[in-house]
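Side project, low priority. Logging it here so it doesn't get lost.
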Amino acid sequence: MTMGGSKLQILLCAPRGFCAGVERAIQIVEESLERFGAPVYVRHEIVHNRYVVESLKAKGAVFVEELAEIPESNRPVVFSAHGVAKDVREAAASRNISVLDATCPLVSKVHKEAILHFRRGHEIVLVGHAGHPEVEGTMGQLPKGAISLVETLDDARAFQPRDPENLAWITQTTLSIDDTSEIVAVLKQRFPAIAGPHKDDICYATTNRQEAVKRVAPVVDRMIVVGAPNSSNSQRLVEVAERAGCPKAVLIQRASEIDWAIFEGVTKIGVTAGASAPEVIVEEVLDAFAARFDINVELVRTAEESIVFSLPRQLRDAAAA
């Protein structure tokens, strides 16, 4: 379907796409394959992006949901960027599995906070989404019942702690800043003594991508978020765009998923990508629009990102050698 080459302005959000934690996780799998050869096992999708997972599979990575699926062997296992529960680490140790930990350092920071609060005798409230691997990993750092999950404002209003004077809150790193601040405000209002993180748990990349979307969303007719349906930070970008005033925001994994009908008569759109979406797919989307419209692309930058996380020691040693 062609739209007669009508003019279309595209506001391209920056920052967008890969964050330092995702870059590091993918690099860990690639370096492991290079150093140890295939197969390298990866527990859970290394990052929530089908394109990335398929390209790593093609290089020899084997993705499993649980360690039990890995045959007895001396092959290395990579833990995904989302982090794992303590019992997964213990199971790996009991089988003498060589682990390369790709947990994002910002997720590890939340794990450490949870453990510290627990040692101080605090009951912990985790603001997050049930079933997300990051949430399962964080809750799995401590004994059952030590952490209560709060997903919504209603949950925050209904939560009944054992001791209101002895509470602490932490959050999943990929949430909407606005939703989280509303939930935390309710918790603080109900429990003034509640302890929080020294620094916000929501990661710098999630914050930066949402801020860029907030700048673009009010002035465009449509917003495209490149990302996976199971990617929390990508889903939040869709919500943030619509809340900031964009009439319709859509989440797509590839250009082939674009529903061209919703772009008829549109003159200005925004494009961004979740933290686990590669730039090559953003370019694929821009190419698809260029084939149908006379496009003019303008970059809208709201922050500079220079953070880089170092690789695990086993791979740093190999690189040095």
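Brief comment: The CA atoms of residues 18 and 65 lie 23 Å apart.
Revisit when time allows.
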